[in-house]
Write a structure and sequence with these properties.
With 230 residues, this protein is mainly alpha-helical. The protein has 9 helices and 5 strands, in the order βαααβααβαααββα. It has 2 domains: 91 residues, no CATH class; 90 residues, Arc Repressor Mutant, subunit A. Keywords: Coiled coil.
Length: 230
């Protein structure tokens, strides 16, 4: 079993990542270290904050200031905000190494999908929903114009397909889309299982639609019978 550590944090902390990824990653690390410190029983708030940082092999140049900033973030983000998860290997990779803009937007897409999936094995997603999460928004946008300029640049069919293909090839995303509004994603299931669930749901929807059509048609037919017999 892997002992990889993860940063679990609210999706809002992705806001501004494309324009200043180092700042976003720094804020994420402070938030996670602070939240973890609240679980510790002994010590002062600052002492627990430092101990929590040690757990993640993180140190801050100005711990008191980092603690204050982390506490402010924690208190200002709703408790039930959607969360996503980032393992420390990816965190350090993006913090220490040069990344292309496409690398960064793919990371946002991956984290956005994780926030949508939560603990579910799979789910159906729309582009608007995904773009919203990539931009650190908790609610689905109505118009692309609501996105930040940096994310809006990729909010089109061509770029979205490129991002999804990259996630499939290199981020272990399981993806399926066929004659449906939106697409199905999973990080746990096989492609065959995902297709099975998607097609099963499609069949169920079609059957329900057919039953509804029959019900409406029956009602109209009975009304016609009443008219002709009177």
């Amino acid at each position: 079993m892997s002992d990889e550590k993860y940063f679990n944090f609210p999706i809002q902390l992705l806001d501004g990542f494309m324009s200043n990824p180092d700042k976003s990653l720094y804020n994420i690390s402070k938030y996670v270290v602070y939240k973890n410190s609240l679980k510790l029983e002994f010590g002062t708030p600052l002492g627990k904050f430092k101990d929590s940082g040690d757990f993640y092999n993180l140190t801050f140049s100005n711990p008191p200031n980092a603690l204050k900033e982390a506490e402010d973030m924690y208190l200002n983000i709703p408790e039930k905000a959607p969360n996503t998860g980032l393992n420390l290997s990816i965190f350090w990779d993006f913090l220490r190494n040069d990344k292309t803009e496409f690398d960064k937007i793919c990371l946002l897409a991956f984290l956005g999908i994780k926030s949508i999936l939560g603990n579910k094995s799979y789910c159906k997603v729309t582009n608007l929903y995904l773009w919203s999460r990539m931009d650190g928004k908790t609610n689905t946008i109505v118009e692309v114009s609501e996105l930040s300029n940096e994310v809006r640049k990729y909010a089109n069919r061509y770029q979205s397909e490129n991002i999804k293909n990259e996630l499939i090839l290199n981020w272990h995303l399981i993806y399926y889309s066929r004659y449906t509004r939106g697409f199905y994603v999973s990080l746990k299931m096989s492609l065959e299982d995902l297709i099975f669930e998607a097609e099963k749901k499609r069949k169920s929807i079609k059957e329900n639609q057919q039953k509804l059509l029959q019900k409406v048609a029956l009602k109209k037919a009975l009304e016609r019978l009443k008219t002709t017999t009177n």
